Amino acid sequence: LEADLKIHLGERSYRIMVSPDAWDQLPGFLDKENISGKLLVVTDDRVGSLYSSSLAGVLEGTGRRARFHTIPQGEESKSFFEIERLCRSMSENGFDRKSVILAMGGGVVGDLAGLAASVYLRGVTYIQLPTTLLAMVDSSVGGKTGINIPEGKNLVGTFYQPAMVCVNTRTLETLEARDWYSGMAEVVKIALTSDPVLFGYLEGFNEIGPDAGIEPTRIIKAACMKKALVVEEDERESGQRRVLNFGHTLGHALEASAGFGGLRHGEAVALGMKASLELSRRQAGLPEDQFKRAMEVIDRIPTPQFDSLDGLSEFILRDKKSSGGAVTIVLIEGIGIPRLVPLNDPGALLDAFTAVA
Ligand SMILES: NC(=O)c1ccc[n+]([C@@H]2O[C@H](COP(=O)([O-])OP(=O)(O)OC[C@H]3O[C@@H](n4cnc5c(N)ncnc54)[C@H](O)[C@@H]3O)[C@@H](O)[C@H]2O)c1
Q1: Which is catalytic among the residues 168, 242, 245, 267?
Q2: Dihedral sign (CA 267, 162, 40, 86)
Q3: Atom of ligand 1 nearest to the CA of 266
Q4: How far apart are the first and last CA of the chain?
Q5: Residue 48 in contact with residue 56, Cβ under 8 Å?
Q6: Gap between the Cα atoms of 256 and 151, Å rounded
Q7: Amino acid 323: pLDDT
Q8: Which of 35, 96, 238, 294 has its CA 20 to 30 A from that of 23?
């Protein structure tokens, strides 16, 4: 069982497998880890209808049976209601501390199932089986779990690492273009903040849509490798891990003001990155030619128009409150060179956004 990548976090270390048939490795992994408890697959209605039978087939082929728990697709499922429903269903069905949760789906399923795994019986094992590009390159790795409350996105959550991340890239074939692009935004984020080689690879394509010929395993491994380094250094996001928030300060505000589900996460991040690039040019000495090249790549991600900035600074300030009084924003001094700076005035970010939106 050769891991493609490994996250080194002492006893919380885990491997990441990336291939078109990665799920075939699951039974071998469960055997190797002596996992004999009950299996619960958490998925959403869409992913479930596409892949439940093939996942059940893989498990049954080696004599294991899983129970399936389905949530409605969409951001609204990241709720206390769904956490409660999931925990109660596990309890009713006799899931004990040896049980394992398999999160088969996008970031919504992963964040919800991860949170449930961290609190059910004070913690059971979980495995990430990401099926969106966004989940494959970002949310399934690193152990951040969470749900939303009306006051804001991801305001309730835990740090809880999975036991393995198993990326079956073949599932990308059924992904909608809009979700592919949403994941690409996170790939571009990683490239701009820490991987000039990956940036060069993306730049080599005239477009970066699902049919552009971009090799999923290539970008997923590159993104996970960079994420691994950052997470290993700063598991609980007190310092360096925050560079992964490039484009997220404004992105979160846009998402919140659009109402959950109105904008894809990656679309919001793409818009946020544009503003951050403009601010980087103004305040962090990002050279003009690199600014242009970075913008060109981000502009290949289709994003909705934003006419009104009403209320955005309020959402940015809310971020400020929850982070203890100071918003740190990520700028880049050059492609692959991030810099964390305090954002004293949300207006400067909104002004930069107006200039590029
Ligand atoms: N934990 C983290 O570190 C982290 C990082 C980034 C984002 N997130 C969270 O991730 C969430 C967004 O994730 P997402 O973009 O994957 O959204 P998602 O889970 O809602 O998936 C998007 C849509 O794609 C469908 N889908 C999933 N896989 C499919 C497939 N293979 N074929 C066809 N359709 C498929 C889903 O049913 C859903 O309708 C947000 O809630 C965000 O906060 C978490």
Answers
A1: 245
A2: negative
A3: 15
A4: 47
A5: no
A6: 9
A7: 67
A8: 96
What is the Cα–Cα distance from 16 to 310, expressed in whole angstroms?
Answer: 42
Query: What secondary structure, in 3-state letters, does the chain show?
Result: CCCCEEECCHHHCEEEEEECCHHHHHHHHHHHCCCCCCEEEEEEHHHHHHHHHHHHHHHHCCCCCEEEEEECCCHHHCCHHHHHHHHHHHHHCCCCCCCEEEEEECHHHHHHHHHHHHHHHHCCEEEEEECCHHHHHHHCCCCECCEEECCEEEEECCECCCCEEEEEHHHHHHCCHHHHHHHHHHHHHHHHHHCHHHHHHHHCCCCCCCCCCCCHHHHHHHHHHHHHHHHHHCCCCCCHHHHHHCCHHHHHHHHHHHCCCCCCHHHHHHHHHHHHHHHHHHHCCCCHHHHHHHHHHHCCCCCCCCCCCCCHHHHHHHHHHHCCCCEEEEEEEECCEEEEEEECCHHHHHHHHHHHC
Question: What is the residue-averaged pLDDT of the chain?
Answer: 93
Residues 271-326 have pLDDT tens digits of: 999 999 999 999 999 999 999 999 999 999 999 887 677 788 888 877 655 666 67
Report the nearest-CA residue for atom 41 of ligand 1. 108
**pTM of structure:** 0.95
Residue 55 and residue 53: Cα distance in Å, rounded? 5
Taken in order 252, 255, 260, 265, is the CA torsion positive or negative?
negative
> Would the CB of 154 count as within 6 Å of ligand 1?
yes
Give yes or no for residue 99 CB within 6 A of ligand 1: no
Question: What are the pLDDT digits (tens) for 5-52?
Answer: 999 999 999 999 999 999 999 999 999 988 889 999 999 999 999 999
Supply 100's token pair.
Answer: 């394992």
